[in-house]
Amino acid sequence: MGEAPAVQEPLRIAMLSYYLPSGSKIGVGFQAHELATELASRGHQVDVFSDCPPVPGAAYGHRHVAMSGSLRTFRFASALRRQDYTGYDVVHAHGDDYWMWRRRAGLHVRTVHGSCFEEARHIRGAKEKLRMLMLGLTEVLASVVADRVVVVSPQTRRWVPRSHDVIPNGVDTTRFTPAPEGDAARADHPVILFVGTWHGRKRGKDLAAAFQRDVRPRVPGAELWMVTRDAPADPGEGIRVLGRLSDEDLADAYRRAWVFCLPSSYEGFGIPYAEAMASGLPVVATPNVGARYVSDEGRAAVLADLDGLGTALADLLEDAPRRAALSAAGLERSRSFSLTAVADAYERLYREPARTVHTGDRT
């Protein structure tokens, strides 16, 4: 009889993320929370070091690195440098690890969720552009500091001088699921769903304008549901502002809508695209880096420039067979982004032999 496979010991993982869902709507924080939750459910000891307060009911530990005053995201990196990680097998940073030159655990992993250099090309305002450029420089430093550098999409490598693996962001496919066949969850009238911000690179304001200009005249009963917290009190006829939704209500909104649209000028990945696809919801997006990757270069979604966005949405609302085909293609594509597959990839990375990473102290 062959030998039984060796039982692998649980890992002790320190996860670093300035953001968490308890204090921020930034997608990196949601991803850090989801990954930490999944790893903890597998028996690993996971502690998240964050400026945000604990997430209620979280399955992982929380180490509060409290910050105040100005330039907090930059000073957070210095605060992380002073933490004690000697009890951990892995330090996994989702940002702000660029001052951690000296080895503090057996393995130091950095996930780069997008490029601040790329975002600086699209963001408005000189002050914000400068801030993004400075953050981009920290990403370059971090790619040198870490043992293993992960990017969430192949295109992100353009801005990262040193990377080893592509591991996408993960979506909980037990929560984001299509409505059962014959289920009455789908709205009885055409609904476009948006998840993002009215201002800034998510371009909710531009989507609302395209909806008013191009969609409502052709599809008079259509509605635009906007999961956002910065929209004006009266965004326009046919537009419903839903504010911030709970996880359960957001999953329900994906199942009820007819089409999902997020016309961002830049996404490093774009978790809402993957959530919509996993929910069986056809996706329309502008051809930013993340949308192109998640949609497999438009094979699993409609990619349209901002000027043609409204027309693309109206065309899709009027074409049920096309929506069904996109739903099936998106659902198949979303399997590549399941949270379980992503956690599997990180577990393999955490346990790679030491010869594949740097050894020795760094000063």
UniProtKB/TrEMBL annotation:
GO terms for biological process: carbohydrate derivative biosynthetic process. Keywords: Glycosyltransferase, Transferase. It holds the Pfam family Glyco_transf_4. Residues 27-175 form the Glycosyltransferase subfamily 4-like N-terminal domain. GO terms for molecular function: hexosyltransferase activity. This is D-inositol 3-phosphate glycosyltransferase. The lineage of its organism: Bacteria, Bacillati, Actinomycetota, Actinomycetes, Micrococcales. The keyword Protein transport does not apply. It comes from Cellulomonas triticagri. The keyword Glycosyltransferase applies.
